[in-house]
TrEMBL record:
Belongs to the peptidase S11 family. The lineage of its organism: Bacteria, Pseudomonadati, Pseudomonadota, Alphaproteobacteria, Hyphomicrobiales. Gene3D superfamilies: DD-peptidase/beta-lactamase superfamily, Sporulation related repeat. InterPro entries: Beta-lactam/transpept-like (IPR012338), Peptidase_S11 (IPR018044), Peptidase_S11_N (IPR001967), SPOR-like_dom (IPR007730), SPOR-like_sf (IPR036680). The active site is at S72 (acyl-ester intermediate), K75 (proton acceptor), S132. Keywords: Carboxypeptidase, Cell shape, Cell wall biogenesis/degradation, Hydrolase, Peptidoglycan synthesis, Protease, Signal. Residues 375-460 form the SPOR domain. It comes from Nitratireductor aestuarii. One of its GO terms (molecular function) is peptidoglycan binding. This is D-alanyl-D-alanine carboxypeptidase. Substrate binds at K234.
């Protein structure tokens, strides 16, 4: 029976190839009409998921939590941190991105910029979403992180904040690295986060082509302008990963993010994605959008890169922490704690203002982003404001914060939660009593305006 089905699918594939003779609407439409909604038979690399981007409901999944190589889907996180830096005022679209020898030496696909030369941040963004330029991704990473290694640690930190518990980054472009892993579910979360958190930048993912010098660089995403409603996001391929694609689709009042990983060819990947969209988009909600992914504080360069001590964003940075037992992947922890002397001076200057002291202390407490908001809806939400070695200090911190902050926490219940990391015990400082993610998210937003670290967490 299996052989018969395999032969039938092979015949269909040959038929599609014969009538299409290349990329375009014919091949994709033919695949959808023939109902290729199932992944290729006997393809151990395949993983896929479709998520309702309004509600977080998973409409389809297969091997969604299995570890996979992200390939150039990695650049989605590079772009996320670039958009974050733009919004934080750390860079502008006209900021020059200089290519080091390391960046210039990256293998294709690439822009081919020589070492010492530069392009603008906006040109780098466009080169990532269209050509998937490896050299530009590395140069952006070095600009934002001081080095690509530091930037990879920042990427992993941000992944934890977004609830991507099974993702580890080791470079900015997705070139082969055995330690760089992700899952289809994590990539769906990142796709949703890009849409939710940066609607003003998201238009870049719809770019069909852009002019760079005398070149007209075309987008590698073949579904743009071909499948109704597709407005991005990113393709990827390495020999180890197979052909990957994350798609955002918005049509007829419905919205989904779909992921296909491990395709046996670009055409097979595109056909599978088109079939998933055709089948599952009609099942998506037409209701109001919901905030699905907690954003978290701005991630900055590790302390060893000499971030200015008075940089408020640097003070509020969140470091990568231990993962839940369900995702035991090693994480590089960037060191961003202020020197003890700087902390002592800051604390002394704020003693006359209790709220200022709470804010100052909050800037130095590690907020370990574990079990953050995900694409799967869940009841029972809490917010986390710190993580520290002393339970007494954690409780005191919570008590002081509730007293001084007032209404956002008036009905919240303070508690601590213990976890182990590298043989040491830590205590998460949390407030519970939030009915849903919206109320938890709103409370966090209020605290952040007072420069108090916070993120929303699904209760265990």
């Amino acid at each position: 029976m299996g052989v018969t089905v395999r032969q039938a699918l092979l015949g269909i594939s040959n038929f599609v190839q014969n009538i299409s003779r290349g990329r375009g609407k014919v091949a994709i439409i033919a695949a959808v009409m023939l109902g290729l909604a199932s992944p290729a038979i006997a393809n151990p690399k395949y993983a896929g998921i479709v998520v309702d981007a309004k509600t977080g409901k998973v409409l389809y999944e297969e091997n969604a939590d299995a570890p996979r190589f992200p390939a150039s889907l990695t650049k989605m996180m590079t772009l996320y941190l670039t958009f974050e830096a733009l919004d934080a005022g750390k860079i502008s679209k006209s900021t020059r991105v200089t290519f080091s020898k390391h960046a210039a030496a990256e293998p294709p696909t690439k822009l081919g910029i020589g070492a010492g030369n530069s392009i603008t941040v906006e040109q780098a963004i466009l080169s990532l979403v269209t050509k998937s330029a490896n050299d530009a991704a590395t140069a952006l990473g070095e600009l934002l992180g001081g080095s690509e290694k530091n930037f990879a640690a920042m990427m992993t930190t941000k992944a934890r904040q977004l609830g991507m518990g099974r993702t580890v980054f080791r470079n900015a472009n997705g070139l082969p690295n055995d330690a760089q892993k992700t899952t289809a579910r994590d990539m769906a979360k990142l796709g949703i986060a890009l849409r939710e958190h940066f609607p003003h930048h998201y238009k870049y993912f719809s770019t069909r082509s852009f002019a760079f010098g005398k070149q007209q660089i075309r987008n590698h995403n073949n579904l743009l302008g071909v499948v109704n409603g597709v407005d991005g996001i990113k393709t990827g391929y390495t020999r180890a990963s197979g052909y990957n694609l994350v798609s955002s689709v918005q049509a007829d009042g419905r919205s989904i993010v779909a992921v296909v990983m491990g395709g046996s060819s670009g055409r097979a990947r595109d056909n599978q994605m088109a079939a998933l969209i055709k089948r599952y988009l009609p099942n998506a909600s037409t209701g109001r959008d919901q905030q699905l992914i907690a954003r978290g504080p701005v991630v900055v360069q590790p302390r060893q890169q000499q971030i200015a001590a008075n940089d408020n964003v640097a003070k509020a940075a969140v470091v990568a922490s231990i993962l839940p037992s369900s995702a035991p992947i090693p994480v590089e922890r960037p060191s961003d704690a202020l020197p003890i002397t700087a902390y002592a001076q800051e604390k002394s200057s704020s003693e006359r203002d209790p709220l200022a002291r709470i804010v100052a202390e909050s800037a130095h407490m590690e907020v370990d982003p574990v079990h953050t908001a995900s694409a799967t809806p869940s009841s029972g939400w809490v917010i986390q404001v710190a993580s520290m070695p002393s339970k007494t200090e954690a409780l005191r911190f919570l008590e002081n914060m509730k007293e001084k902050v007032g209404s956002p926490l008036s009905k919240a219940s303070a508690f601590t939660e213990t976890f182990e990391h590298k043989g040491r015990t830590y205590h998460r400082a949390r407030f519970g009593g939030f009915d849903d993610k919206v109320s938890a998210w709103n409370a966090c937003e209020t605290l952040k305006k007072q420069k108090i670290q916070c993120f929303a967490v699904v209760a265990n």
